[in-house]
Amino acid sequence: MSIWWSLHLRREAASVPLARRLLLGTMETAGVDPDISFDLSVALSEACANAVEHGGSGGIADETEAYHVTAYLDGDRCRIEVTDSGPGFPPPAETRHRPSLAEHGRGMHLIEELADHVRFRNRPGRGAVVTFDKMLKWRDDALLKVS
Fold it and tell me: pTM for this structure?
């Protein structure tokens, strides 16, 4: 069995805990190990905070602009995707030479540490996408446990 959901959220700080709570509730109900759920919820919070801060046309949070979060629990894997409409990620060479960008990229590094596979990509003229996966571990009483 699999579960998926998708959110269309305003670019405002209050949207971040909303997405996190929905993910945690879904995983708790499904029976995912709490440590795995926590790691994914922190990674999701970082990706959402990045979309709120940087994901609009002007780089300043504007509640009229939105970002999207989609989560899939399928078999023994969870995939989360956060999509915004901002300028996208800076080129790697630009990040290396500008310490301020490296400092603000800590959330992306945290996502890489908490997930098993991460992909950061730009959609030219349409924003950025962060996609990350993690293998799931299940509680003994899990409803969706993979056999």
Answer: 0.85
Instruction: Dump pLDDT digits (tens) for 13-41.
Output: 999 999 999 999 999 999 999 999 999 99
CA 24 – CA 30 distance, rounded (Å): 10
DSSP for the chain, please give it. -EEEEEEEEESSTTHHHHHHHHHHHHHHHHTB-HHHHHHHHHHHHHHHHHHHHH-SSSSS--TTSEEEEEEEEETTEEEEEEE--SS-PPPHHHHHH-HHHHHHTHHHHHHHHHSSEEEEEEETTTEEEEEEEEE--B-TT-SS---
